[in-house]
Amino acid sequence: MPVTTNIHPDLLRALVTVVECGSFSTAGERLGRGQSAVSLQIKRLEEQLGVQVLLRNPRHISLTSEGELILDQARRILTLNDELLVRAREPEIAGVVKFGAPEDFATSHLPNVLAQFSNNHPKVALEVTCELTLELLERFSAGNLDLALVKRDPSETRTGLRVWREPLVWVGTDRTLFGDNETIPLVVSPQPCVYRKRMTDSLDQNRRSWRIAYTCGALSGSLAAVRAELGVTVLPKEMVPSDLAILNAERLDLPALEDTEMALIEAPGLSPAAARLRDHVVRQLEHGA
What we know:
Elements: H1 9-21, H2 24-31, H3 35-49, E1 54-57, E2 60-63, H4 65-89, E3 95-101, H5 103-108, H6 110-120, E4 124-130, H7 133-141, E5 147-152, E6 161-166, E7 168-172, E8 184-188, H8 194-205, E9 210-215, H9 219-227, E10 233-236, E11 245-246, E12 260-266, H10 272-288
Parallel strand pairs: 3-4, 3-5, 8-9
Antiparallel strand pairs: 1-2, 5-12, 6-12, 7-10, 7-11
Helix pairs in contact: 1-2, 1-3, 1-4, 2-3
């Protein structure tokens, strides 16, 4: 019979963490190991698999084509591993976790993620707050949140750990049409807002005139304004309702938009329950993204 080599979950976790953090040093901090120890784990994993999984240079870490396939399998194995530990340690995980997220992201991507966590951890009480990113940051700074998902510009890498990235699109109705020199009416959230800034900056850079036609802090209110054709807005592609249209930016002479990012920030000294939720959210959103 052929000899079977078992891959230790720690080696797979090192790979997943390095990819999520984007560096060996940050991954080492999360794993409680030194940078050299994490690098050695990746080397051992590559030796056992017989393939290179990461491409390294001083400024950037990227997956090889084999590494991309292995990463997906590694996440599945770790999910099963963690679920087994959950079952074994269920009585130990209990408490209250205060979690914040922007309303639009919370309504589209989080319900299943949080429901799965609650099913696996019935003794953990989640207190979820949905507000604008600015308000979430204020609550977090005041010590009123354990974890928060916040919108950020891709160039801002100091705020939390990136867990989601997807393209932004212009949104209107099937009848939306602009003349060549027409001022673009915008439906926006109150300042400061990543989407609002992305809209106005891109229009300014392309010398298109614009005006704020409608301002609302609630996603439902903004979508109602777009449906009433008071203006156009910008949303992540997956969040566009089926009754609204993704506008053809080229045909309407609207500028292209950079991707949006969602980052997870955590308070110091997380409880075991909060740390478990953090790991679950990162794993699920990273896998989904």
